[in-house]
Amino acid sequence: MKIEKDLKKLxxxxxxxxxxxxxxxxxxxxxxVGGCPVAWVNENFNPRKIILALSRGEIKDIITNDLxxxxxxxxxxxxxxxQKILVSEIIAKLKNIAAxxxxxxxxxxxxxxxxxxxxxxxxxxxxxxxxxxILNLPKISQVSVEKEINKILxxxxxxxxxxxx
Length: 165
Hints:
By secondary structure, this protein is an all-alpha fold. The chain has two domains: 2-101, Alpha-helical ferredoxin (Fumarate Reductase Iron-sulfur Protein, Chain B, domain 2); 106-164, no CATH class. It is built from eleven helices and no strands. The chain has helices at 2-15, 31-34, 37-41, 47-55, 59-63, 76-80, 87-101, 106-118, 126-134, 146-156, 159-164. The two termini are 23 Å apart.
């Protein structure tokens, strides 16, 4: 399987040779889960379990599980960790590995397309426009940021996922 063949190389490329060692200082206190807003609404998402699986070398299990994509990058886990483990940053790296070896969930691709098109993750609804008008706020301008967005997509490698489509 391609995952098995390229996984070690990808891990070193994205996280460095000591990627797995970085998480072995975790003593599984659960502080990351206690503050995680995603864990509050989805009991199956658990940053502590992701770190535990990573410390056990179960990377294939992590990157093939769709739960990995639920992290909203609020960085609460990172800020609260008594061991200073960069949980959300590690999850971001795991997502990068997953994106290279499997299909990205459709919702992420759609969001990426919207960013490429508008510079935003979602369109501005007519309801938002009405509320802004009631509050005497200015209209949200439609700016042309295509050049800047394309540069960001290229620098991050995200354009490759759009090209797959």
